[in-house]
Every structure is written in structure tokens, then in C-alpha cells.
Amino acid sequence: MASAVVTAWVAAVALTGCGGDGDDGPAADRQVLTTDAVRKDLQAALKAGGFGQPSYVDGRSGAIRNPCQVMGRLRTRTAPDRKATERAVAELEKRGWQATEPMADRSGVGWALDHDAGWTLSFLSGVASEEGVGTVLQSEEQDGAGAFKGLSFLAFGKKCGQAAATASP
User: Fold this and answer.
1) Closest by Cα among 40, 120, 48 to 81
2) Can you give the pTM of this predicted structure?
């Protein structure tokens, strides 16, 4: 049986949406977001939590059905520290994202965050089984036990512009 956090992650993967137009400033300063601006917010949040650089999933893997999504993950050796993850979420809040109360279980913790520009972000930290995340993770990102340890996220918007559809890797 999948945990609530893993179930939330898998449900977020199934969602589709669109992003904004080509403005390159901080996401909190705009009413329309691009995929590049969302990535910058995520990278700033991960830095605030003391994490490294994430890898992003692109359309070639088949995991993203809409080019206006931002999907990625950051593998860690052990389950991420909850306080470090909370610092990352706090940075997202400073950048204009409003977080719900965290949803936690023994596999990890997750937040749903919304932005006034029409974006929703699922930000999850913990351990997920191979069955829980399915084909979204590359085989090299699963350890010998078939688990992924780290952070994963999926953002999608309700507005879509051409610049959002051409995000860089």
C-alpha cells in the first residue's frame, strides 16, 4: 500500500497544466510565471535548505505530457532532513508561494503550494518505493532496494504562453 506522501506525488505527476509568458524576474514579482521563473524559485529554495542542484525531467522521458510543467528531483544519500526541507519551503513562501500544512507519514513529508499567478507546486521530501513513483524515476536513481531518497517536485500552471513552452533544461 502506498503512503499518503507517495500517493500525493504520483497524483501530482498525473496532472497537466500550462505556464506563463517570458518575464525573467523573481516569481513573486509577477502575475504570470514562466517555467524558467519556477525553476529559479525551486533552485533558490533548495539552496536555502542546503541542498544541491536538482535534475529536471523533460518531455523526452514521456513523464511530462505538457511542456508548461516543471518536474524534477534531487537524490540524497538518506531521507532529507525535515528542518532543511522546511527552510526550502519557507524560501518558496518568500518568493510568493503559499504553502498548505505539511502532510507527513513515515515515508516523508509533502506540501502543496499555490502561487497567485495560477501555478500549483507539489514539493515532497522522503523515501518513495519504485512502485510508488513508477517510471518517472530513471533506473539509475533507484537504490538497490528499489527506493528513491530525496526531494521531488512538480509544478503546473493554469495559464500558458509560448515562452513557458520553451523552457531550457
Assistant:
1) 48
2) 0.73
